[in-house]
């Protein structure tokens, strides 16, 4: 019996929902050793998925992860697709590779896990977007929509005519309780061209965007049989912390004090990946607009826990506005 909470581990989640892993196909962005994407894959490999597709910047940083997955489950078809989320051209190329690959007939779970955090100074992507927003949100927004046909291909008729339950394809986006630090600055995404830049507010804006995108995904695709969830994995020592220094750490603590929040204790990688795995696998999670965010492996109702989910992050009007802006940025009409 799994006790859902802070200490739940990814292996426990997979063991409980092993039938929801067996024979299914997973696509995971973020493939480096020591990250939540890799750790999620190690847990999934215990239960015989048919396929795991890693999408990441570097094959060199992914090879050891692929080797470990294969050592856990030798029958798993493991693939790597090169992807740089801070380049719309790279996202389009990667999406085309996925869509054109007949050996990836469908995507049962799309786990949008990759990201950057707390870049000390304003950085712009090659598409002139603030780096957190461009990488963590826009890159994933474009990718998810471009490969949506493969997610839709995983939809199976439910005998009761209901959406949800075993086999429902899912889009799981890893957000953060950093969403509390900033809503979407629709008129100033680059923080006054850096003059008002704060690394945690920039990160927070992108994490709010992850949540708002999930609201829109549910609204647009729920009726077609897809469920979308987002989550706070907690505080974990992954490669995301590589940009931290004394100044950014102080800024983080100052923002926590400003928002009257406490710093969460750290989790292990196994504890950290458990929440996104439950979001990806648990057939009892209802795919509706009221339950879409998970924290410490547990689903929250809108407004239930303002400690980790800000009101601006659960605003359906903001979600609609962000979707329109994202379409404009990528030059598409999804």
TrEMBL record:
Keyword check for Magnesium: no
Key word Oxidoreductase present: yes
Pfam families for the chain: adh_short (PF00106)
GO MF term list: oxidoreductase activity
InterPro entries found in the cross-reference section: NAD(P)-bd_dom_sf, SDR_fam
UniProt keywords, alphabetically: Oxidoreductase
Family stated for the protein in its record: Belongs to the short-chain dehydrogenases/reductases (SDR) family.
Annotated protein name in UniProt: Short-chain dehydrogenase
Taxonomic source organism: Trichoderma guizhouense
């Amino acid at each position: 019996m799994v006790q859902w909470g802070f200490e739940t581990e990814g292996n426990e989640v997979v063991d409980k929902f092993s039938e929801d892993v067996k024979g299914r196909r997973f696509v995971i962005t973020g493939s480096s050793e020591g990250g939540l994407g890799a750790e999620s894959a190690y847990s999934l490999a215990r239960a015989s998925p048919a396929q795991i597709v890693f999408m990441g910047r570097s094959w060199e940083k992914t090879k050891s992860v692929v080797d470990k997955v294969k050592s856990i489950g030798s029958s798993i078809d493991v693939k790597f697709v090169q992807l740089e989320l801070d380049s719309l051209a790279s996202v389009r190329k990667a999406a085309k590779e996925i869509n054109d690959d007949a050996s990836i007939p469908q995507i049962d779970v799309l786990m949008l896990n990759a990201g950057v955090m707390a870049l000390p100074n304003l950085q712009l992507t090659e598409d002139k977007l603030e780096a957190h927003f461009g990488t963590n949100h826009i890159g994933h927004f474009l990718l998810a929509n471009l490969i949506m046909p493969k997610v839709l291909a995983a939809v199976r008729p439910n005998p009761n005519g209901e959406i949800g339950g075993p086999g429902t394809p899912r889009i799981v986006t890893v957000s953060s309780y950093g969403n509390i630090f900033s809503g979407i600055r629709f008129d100033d995404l680059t923080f006054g061209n850096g003059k008002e830049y704060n690394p945690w507010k920039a990160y927070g804006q992108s994490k709010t965007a992850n949540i708002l995108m999930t609201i829109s995904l549910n609204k647009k695709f729920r009726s077609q049989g897809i469920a979308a969830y987002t989550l706070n994995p907690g505080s974990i020592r992954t490669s995301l912390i590589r940009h931290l220094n004394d100044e950014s750490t102080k800024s983080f603590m100052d923002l926590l004090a400003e928002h009257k929040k406490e710093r969460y204790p750290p989790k292990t990688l196994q504890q950290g990946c458990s929440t996104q795995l439950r979001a990806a696998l648990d057939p009892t999670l209802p795919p509706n607009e009221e339950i879409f965010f998970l924290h410490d492996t547990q689903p929250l109702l809108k407004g239930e826990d303002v400690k980790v989910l800000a009101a601006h992050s659960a605003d359906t009007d903001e979600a609609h506005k962000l979707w329109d802006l994202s379409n404009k940025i990528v030059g598409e009409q999804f």
